[in-house]
Amino acid sequence: QVQLVESGGGLVQPGGSLRLSCTASGIIFSIYVMGWYRQAPGKQRELVATISSGYSTNYADSVKGRFTISRDNAKNTVSLQMNSLKPEDTAVYYCNSNFRGNNYWGQGTQVTVSS
Description:
Layout: E1 3-7, E2 10-12, E3 18-25, E4 33-39, E5 46-51, E6 57-59, E7 67-72, E8 77-82, E9 91-99, E10 102-105, E11 109-113
Parallel strand pairs: 2-11
Antiparallel strand pairs: 1-3, 3-8, 4-5, 4-9, 5-6, 7-8, 9-10, 9-11
């Protein structure tokens, strides 16, 4: 059974930082493209960042220069370091794993950026 478990969400002031983590089980983690997506109230889920099995990264324009995605294949973990957070970053953040159409999601973790 595949499980993706996110952690690290919370409430932070504008300009602050948070680090999200996602630990996977039930998959051969190293071969999967891992990613973070987010969904704000009333909006569609959108890509935040992905990292390939070869460590190539891709970011949404809105987070470039502020967010960094990384992976640790030894720990089956993907992380998202979020700096200079803005109120518009408020959303539920979801971990995703994808390999040749095998697509899995975590349960999501809430990130709220507010003063």
